[in-house]
């Protein structure tokens, strides 16, 4: 057994040293062993996990809960492919995680959230935390329990102080960004009525469009995700009533739509796209913005859409907040999120088409 007091001291020491010398903090993993008896487990049956860096000073009663991304598995084969990786087993996860960008405890790199309680929920269920199938097939030993994972971790965090939050932000990247949308109302319901609670989706707003070949391949893909994981009960009723349970997202250039890899160089680095491919991107941009317009521009809703070729900008310090980070109207993503959360000013900014934005850092994937 490990002396909890000794572990806490070591954890704090690491954070202090990190605060002085880097942009973030090294945080140990927490395995939620007690969740196993509730059936809240990863694909392989291992316990769910998260990393928690305690708040301090004025942020001691404020909470950021950030959900890791990593795509989805839509059938037994693709879920088995994930089962023995960090996306399907907590046994395969890193024991420590560097909290930077939106998770940083350094005010110089995360001005509005640095001293909050900051949580990273690890992703190991393949369903954006929506699955709930009781039966486990002994032939595969796959557990589809994403919704139970989310609930078990929420209950654990509530007991550790989340229930007393003054301010709380549920966020996520990619599949985690989709999860922040799907679980936003439930998250709000857990917290005090007078608490300020908002949800942030980073690269998690997936629209329903046909792929580059004109086929609706991804519609069937998401329908399979929902059926495989038993996700219907976890999806907001408003989504299901309008779209059907399989319509929770989209991927535009799946491998099945490009079997010869014609788009690979372009997908991995936008600077290698042909003029024709760039025009197709611009057409997609228009479709995306048309769909986004249906959300409305209420001051309670914030939008930061730049034309930078990156996936998940809240988790990268260079993109989140730095001397040369991407900006819209000279405002970084971190400051835009802070202004929106604290109601200092509304933020609805949409960039001009690529490649107009000279503040961008384009990724190579």
From TrEMBL:
Principal location: secreted
E.C. code: 3.1.1.-
Enzyme class: hydrolase
Superkingdom, taxonomy of origin: Eukaryota
Alphabetic keyword roster: Cell wall, Cell wall biogenesis/degradation, Hydrolase, Secreted, Signal
Biological process (GO), any one: cell wall organization
Entry GO terms, CC: plant-type cell wall
Cellular localization per UniProt: Secreted, Cell wall
Signal peptide per UniProt: 1-24
GO molecular function terms attached to this record: pectin acetylesterase activity
Cell wall biogenesis/degradation recorded as keyword: yes
Keyword Hydrolase: yes
Family membership noted in the UniProt record: Belongs to the pectinacetylesterase family.
Function field: Hydrolyzes acetyl esters in homogalacturonan regions of pectin. In type I primary cell wall, galacturonic acid residues of pectin can be acetylated at the O-2 and O-3 positions. Decreasing the degree of acetylation of pectin gels in vitro alters their physical properties.
Annotated protein name in UniProt: Pectin acetylesterase
Species of provenance: Asparagus officinalis (Garden asparagus)
